[in-house]
Amino acid sequence: YINSPTLLDPSLQLKSRPGLRFAGQITGCEGYVESAAIGLLAGRFAAAERLGQAPSLPPPTTAFGALLN
């Protein structure tokens, strides 16, 4: 596992190497559903970046948002 709160930004990019994202259990989330959800978020963030858009972070009060906090 990596220390996600320290090493990753809110869009799951490695702070020291933007563009490199992490998803799944390596980020510290547990379970298949949570890992799949983090993968979905990482994909959405990467797609937004590719399109030149800012990532749309889910509110922390939602299930997706809670996984990022």
Give helix % range.
40-55%
Secondary structure class reads: mainly alpha
Rg value: 11 Å
Query: What's the total number of strands?
Result: 2
Report the β-strand fraction as a percent range: 5-15%
State the order of secondary-structure elements, H for helix, E for strand: HEEHH
Give the strand line-up of the largest sheet. Answer: 1-2
Question: How does the overall form come out from the CA principal axes?
Answer: globular
User: Overall mean pLDDT score?
Assistant: 94
How large is the count of helical segments? 3
Number of structural domains: 1
Largest sheet: 2 strands, antiparallel
- Measure the end-to-end span: 16 Å
Residue stretches low in confidence (pLDDT < 50, at least 5 long) are none
Question: Would you mind describing this structure in some detail?
Answer:
The chain has 69 residues and is mainly alpha-helical. It has one domain (4-68). Helix content is 42%, strand content 10%. It has three helices and two strands; from the N terminus they run H-E-E-H-H. It has helices at residues 4-7, 32-50, 63-68; strands at residues 13-14, 17-21. The radius of gyration is 11 Å and the shape is globular. The protein starts with a helix and ends with a helix.
Layout of secondary structure:
Layout lengths: L3 H4 L5 E2 L2 E5 L10 H19 L12 H6 L1
Antiparallel strand pairs: 1-2
